[in-house]
UniProtKB/TrEMBL annotation:
Residues 8-192 form the NAD(P)-binding domain. This is NAD(P)-binding domain-containing protein. It comes from Anaerosphaera aminiphila DSM 21120. It comes from the Bacteria. GO terms for molecular function: oxidoreductase activity, acting on the CH-NH group of donors, NAD or NADP as acceptor. InterPro entries: NAD(P)-bd_dom, NAD(P)-bd_dom_sf, Polyketide_Oxido-like.
């Protein structure tokens, strides 16, 4: 299996690369500048400049792109649309590092976490843009996509426990009543899905056990 990790220099991207490398998978980092990840091979190219020729040999493409400023937030949609367009009708799988704000908090799936009164205002622009990109992704029947949302408390420096609960569209708490996961445990879940391919054209979510 050959895996490409896009935005591999980011915090999530680096841990996904590390997890895949530790499993002896064939991993290539796709970065804009110098490769800072543990991937032995790299492609230096902006996501929006990628072509199918660049990605055709990879069984799985993991999109770990993230944008945080008001000017760059729309790139969540722009970059994902570009990837879908070049992978349209192809067998390659596209896995996306998603957000938690779009997870539903009721059984009817009428209210999302980002719509609740306690959701932090500072995170609403990011959640809104990521939710928009997910809505657009759901319309792509021509792409073998999977969208993986983290728990609501997504901990960049959290410890690697090696244990997680795989859930679906709804915000899920663990046995301690918490919705949390480290970037490292999220990376385990992402690589597990890359290997298994069990949730094509689905949004799934993950929380620490």
């Amino acid at each position: 299996m050959k895996i490409a990790v896009l935005a591999a220099n980011g915090r999530a991207g680096q841990l996904i690369v590390e997890e895949a490398v530790n499993r002896n998978l064939d991993v290539t980092a796709v970065v804009r500048g110098k490769n800072k990840s543990k991937a032995p091979k790299s492609i230096s190219k902006d996501i929006l400049n990628l072509t199918y020729e660049d990605l055709k040999d990879f069984n799985v493409i993991i999109d770990a792109f993230g944008a945080w400023t008001s000017e760059t937030l729309p790139l969540h949609s722009t970059t994902l649309k570009h990837l879908c367009d070049i992978l349209s009708g192809k067998e390659n799988r596209l896995l996306v590092v998603g957000g938690a704000g779009s997870l539903y908090v009721n059984k009817e799936h009428t209210q999302r976490l980002m719509d609740t009164k306690d959701f932090p205002d500072d995170f609403k622009p990011l959640a809104t843009n990521m939710a928009k990109s997910l809505d657009e992704l759901r319309l792509r029947d021509d792409v073998n996509w999977t969208y993986l949302s983290p728990a609501s408390d997504f901990q960049a420096d959290g410890k690697r426990t090696g244990k997680y609960i795989l859930a679906g569209e709804e915000l899920t708490n663990n046995s301690n009543g918490k919705s949390e996961i480290s970037y490292a445990d999220f990376a385990i879940a992402m690589v597990d899905e890359a290997v298994s391919g069990n949730h094509i054209k689905e949004r799934i979510s993950v929380v620490v056990e």
